[in-house]
UniProtKB/TrEMBL annotation:
Pfam family, one: RsbRD_N
Species the sequence originates in: Janthinobacterium psychrotolerans
UniProt name for this protein: RsbT co-antagonist protein RsbR
Keyword presence, Phosphoprotein: yes
Domain (STAS) ranges: 166-277
Top-level taxon in the UniProt lineage: Bacteria
Amino acid sequence: MNTVSGTGQARQLAGMISQHHTQLLEGWMADLIGRLMRRDKIAENELRQQAAQFLPSLAGALESSDSFDIEARAWDDTRQLLTEISQSRVRQGYSPIDTASFIFSLKEPLFGYLRTALDDTPQQLSEAIVGTSILFDKLGLLTIEIYQKAREQVIMRQQQELLELSTPVVQLWKNVLALPLIGTLDSARTQVVMESLLQKIVDTGALIAIIDITGVPTVDTLVAQHLLKTIAAARLMGADCIISGIRPQIAQTIVHLGVNLEDVITKATLADAFVVALKRTGSTITYSKQAD
């Protein structure tokens, strides 16, 4: 008995998708909606639109490429469509399983049409089902890969935004800035801190920057080095730094580590550092006694 080659299988599947487009779409939609774990996250009409776009794209790729090689140029539009769908699933809060189900749920409707068309040729039917299954496994894995990359980008963007939000630079007084630090100071955050502080120095022309570490739980050699780098960068921009929030435990740790902070002014509280900053900028605060 003659069998259908890989090329023949691709064309055969493309013709079947085009011929039974409407019925296939309805069967696929029913299965797809039934599989979705969070179907409230996307409107049915949007889901139907995506499915309606995918079917002709899939048929065109199969027809043009003459193969199940989804890396071929003929599959560019289909891969791009799956990229857009997978990325939208990330934004809408879907899981990787929900995303891959968009592809995997199309298997059974297609298998049904293959069984009907090739019922009299068992070997050809078996080969067609195996080839189609392998194709959809590739497409499903592609959606998961795209989903994971998009999710990682979202997480990295959120982390960057959190870093920026957690390092506000505040102008306390004319020529005086304050940078309150809360949490661990690592290399990535140091870069954000440095960029934020330097940009604020440029914008305001500040002469003094108070770096308050009251909210930093521990100071080790690495944290101390990060602080020194920030101070050095600020000095290059024409601003001196004062470190406030030096608690007894932190002072002992810094001495024990042998970190050289001799040329840096340190204070126990932000208020004490602010007083020093006012004096160094030639500013004074006058208290007036209110009448009883």
